[in-house]
Amino acid sequence: MNANSPSPAPLSPRPLHHAAGVRGQVMTARQLREHGVAAADTAQRCRPGGPWQQLLPGVYLLHAGPPTPQERLHAALLYAGRAPARATVPGQTRGTTASAPARDAAPDPYGDAMLTGLAALALHGFAAAPPLLALDRIDVLLPRTRRLRSTGLARLVRAHTLPRPARITGLPVAPVPRALADTVAVLTDAADVHLLLTEAVRGGHCEAASVVRELSRARLLGRPHVIDAVDTLIAEGRALAEGRLYDMVDIHALPDPLWNVDLRLPGGPHLGGVDAYWPDHAVAVEIDARTPRRTSHDDRALWSQYAKKRETLERLGITVVHVTPRGLREALEQQAEAVRGAMLASAEREQAAHVVVLPR
Predict the structure, then answer these.
(1) Alpha-carbon span 209 to 97, nearest angstrom
(2) Radius of gyration (Cα) for the chain, nearest Å?
(3) pTM, whole model, 2 decimals?
(4) Cα(38)–Cα(93) distance, rounded to whole angstroms?
């Protein structure tokens, strides 16, 4: 074939005017080839003053002028994504594939990639995150094995294990705890870290424990400005969980308990504190707000303390109901039914040992 010969057409070229919306305005070189646009034609249209422009290696914007925030997000994901090539068999006809998938079961053009960092937090609705238009770079999370480099507007963040992404405006977005950890990793201003972590819990995006766990996994808890923010985060999460526990008692018409008390044997040892206690039913509620801040060993030790206290109280005839901040946020009715069930069962149990109740 000589230099003047036309490029071979793809099996099923699709006219570009059929591609509408943001995805139709941002395409990879391979997607353009599937639409019958040769590489030379793409390069010609991306020359200075041309109608197209190259946003990232192999990713093109099919109009002049600056890209919109959504187009920038789409471009970063396309650059980092890994859409599998379409397999064909020798002699295939009518556009069929080797595995004969459904016509509309197109592969995800983003592969395993997902948005993270400030872009993800902005999509999750964080008021403390800057608007998408103000972000110079878009953070994209992808497997550690991918051989790509950060370039242009795309900053790549690698992970051994990827979380399950949420879909926001059709884009894969890292869950809030992971997006926070990737954001905090590059922030140096303590006030910014404090604002984001506090909003995560106060705004109902996630629980303090999940954030601390992700920060610990990313080895960020040793940074002084992060430690201070985490102290506030834990206190904020605990206060919110206690408030939801009060709401649970009120909304579901449970008897008023004794709030935040210590239990002791008469003249004997301290048995431990609980968040709510119903002495007439010998039922206690404890909020499991563990926030591992150093190692899994610390977490195991803390859980051992919980288990030992529960075992001691139940040996004395006191039923302990553990509730979690997430359960109080997402399943308040189920938590209330667990407490109510423990109260009803108390009538069939042997009378509990007498304990002294003191305010905490």
Answers:
(1) 47
(2) 28
(3) 0.74
(4) 22
